Amino acid sequence: MNDDQDLTKRRTSIGAQRNPASQEAILQAAAEILAEHGPKSFSIEAVAKRAKAGKPTIYRWWPNKAALLLDTYHRQKNPHLHADSGDLQRDLTWFLTELLAFWRRGGSGAIFRSVIAEAQTDQAACEALGAYLAERRKHLGAQIRATQARENIGAEVNPELVAEMLSGFAWIRLLTNRLEIDEEEAGKVVKTILDGIRGRG
């Protein structure tokens, strides 16, 4: 019996459906490796060994390293990042401030930068990042759409495109290591975007 078969027997899966205990062990192992050694030392082999899970199990649920990195990264984020207080200016200012603060803390920014870097030369990583970003645009876009009617934002405005504009600013700050931002500066960024889409049509 080879090592992968032995490891798989220690922590069984249930076909394509994820076993919650195995999933938690894998994500916890991934988070520990990232915290201890950073993204440069991250590998499916290292995660499998620490989680006592077979590599085939990991690859069945996460088709590549980038997908597992993104899942590990995302579970560290503030679940209340997309709060809806009824004031879009305030909510998006909070989102931007908290996102950059999250990237400053605990190596999360380095993890996301490493995925972006890998996506430049690896098609699988590019696809994983694209799928993740599409889901993030959907969530932030839904938040914008919820306030579209009551905040004089025309129906022709695409909320997902607005979300991408805001995320684009955040990405530039991440990739140039300028993550310090206060509420006043974040508010000016958001106001510039919202002023451009209000009262159109």
TrEMBL record:
Entries under PROSITE patterns matching the protein:
HTH_TETR_2
Q: Name one GO molecular function term.
A: transcription cis-regulatory region binding
Coiled-coil stretches: none
Q: Is this entry keyworded Transcription regulation?
A: yes
Chain ranges of the HTH tetR-type domain:
20-80
**Domain of life, per lineage:** Bacteria
Q: Provide this UniProt record's keywords sorted from A to Z.
A: DNA-binding, Transcription, Transcription regulation
User: Which residues carry the record's DNA-binding region feature?
Assistant: 43-62
Q: Where is this region: Disordered?
A: 1-21
Which InterPro entries does the annotation name?
A: Homeodomain-like_sf (IPR009057), HTH-type_TetR-like_transc_reg (IPR050109), HTH_TetR (IPR001647), Tet_transcr_reg_TetR-rel_C_sf (IPR036271), TetR_C (IPR011075)
- Official protein name in the record: TetR family transcriptional regulator
Organism, by scientific name, is Ciceribacter lividus
Q: What is the lineage of its organism?
A: Bacteria, Pseudomonadati, Pseudomonadota, Alphaproteobacteria, Hyphomicrobiales
